[in-house]
Specification:
By secondary structure, the chain is α+β, with helices and mostly antiparallel strands. The chain has a single domain, classed as ORF SCO4226, nickel-binding ferredoxin-like monomer (Alpha-Beta Plaits), CATH 3.30.70. About 30% of the residues lie in helices and about 30% in strands. It contains 2 helices and 4 strands; from the N terminus they run βαββαβ. It has a 4-stranded antiparallel beta sheet with strand order 2-3-1-4, with helices on one face. Helix 1 crosses helix 2. The longest helix has 20 residues. It is globular, with a radius of gyration of 13 Å. The N terminus and C terminus are likely disordered.
């Protein structure tokens, strides 16, 4: 995901997806679509980035963190990617490491 300088009007959003049957392979196959959709929107000059996603397989839920100018952009990116969205909320993160690897390295 391309890095960009965060503007003051960007927020972090948590996308909650109830996704019956979701498992890690399914999520891994779906995330490139989300990245492509975010890239398409960024190409139009809009600020949106998929920061990362969390899978809770026992609950069939995926949480994705997206930095964007608006909730409308978050919804647009998810619609373009063909991913389910049940709820979007503005969030503040505490204790997350910006440099944690995709392999799940923690603090």
């Amino acid at each position: 995901m391309p890095a960009h300088t965060q503007t003051s009007k960007e927020e972090l959003f948590l996308v909650e997806r109830y996704w019956p049957g979701v498992d890690e392979p399914m999520l891994r196959e779906s995330l490139p679509r989300l990245e492509r959709a975010a890239g398409e929107v960024r190409a139009r000059g809009r600020a949106v980035d998929h920061i990362g996603s969390l899978l809770v397989p026992d609950d069939q839920v995926v949480f994705s963190v997206i930095r964007a100018e608006s909730v409308e952009l978050v919804l647009e990116v998810n619609e373009r990617a063909g991913l389910p969205v049940d709820r979007v909320a503005s969030v503040t993160t505490l204790g997350f490491r910006a440099d944690a690897s995709e392999e799940g390295e923690t603090g």
